[in-house]
Amino acid sequence: MSLNTRVVLREYAPEGVYSPDCFTVDHSQPIPDPKALAKGQVLVQVSALSVDPHQRIFISPPPEKPTIKSAFRYPLGQSIFGIGVGTVAASKSTEFAVGDKVRSEGMPWQAHAILGEDQLTKLPASDSALSDHVGVYGMAAFTAYLGTIYAGKPRAGETILVSAASGAVGQVAVQLAKARGLRVVGMAGSDEKAEHIKGLGADAVINYKTCGDLNAAIEEAAPNGIDIYFDNVGGEILDTALLWLNSLARVVLCGSMSTYGAAQSKIHGVTNLPSIIVKQVALQCIYYLPHYGTQRETDFLQEMAQLVEQGKIQFRVDERIGLESAPQALADLFVGKNFGKLIIKV
Question: Are the CB atoms for 121 and 102 separated by under 8 Å?
């Protein structure tokens, strides 16, 4: 009997940096039997999983008094899930056949998983690796495209500041902005990552951990002010960036990594909002999911495929092998030990 590998949440992670010990990599259950599939269900052999910052929220302890506004939490004792891709191994669905390549926003962190046909999207036949659909053609790159092009509304000659610019979203935002004629300033937390961002075409890079005075560093890197701020981290960096925005600037609120899993008392609140009111700055949140299946996704896939074919886009992937590596990979994401888009190759 072949056994399934699953990443199971054993206990909720406390505030702050969590230990991978809150997970168990379980081998106690058999691979699901195709004969057990109900009508409309599909057995997927999972190939690759996306490791994403928002998952830190889902493993935090639930509030003592949950409300309808409380964030979702993964159930204890079950596999966690996220964005993933795989191949149909068995099917009782009229929509999917054995061998189809599929993506799911709720792919269990397992070697094999049963999903309903309504949880899956069939991927087009292509020569690209299946893992590219959680990489250069995946959620992070699509988010960067939406934020840079539609929320940022870039115009040649403007200046964009991108936080976490070596990360999954930031690296694409840097290159899309540069291709459209912007002055690009990236931010990162190590000299190695800063050099990588320069290699992507950024005009200036700030190492926020070593620059000392962040205000002075932004002023030097963006002497004409900031027209677009692409925020991936929130907290103090967001609050500081607001001071350097030009009139009619755009702020793209994509993520808040500095706050995920942090104690409320340790979160740096935004105090500089009054400085942007008279400048008529626009703040827009970006969430990819409502844009799946729209013309914007089609445009994104076409542009990225063309850039990849022409060798005009770099997409760095931090690939971890095996589900056994998954708990540590998620931990690494929040202490800067990843470099590029974190993916688990199952």
Answer: yes
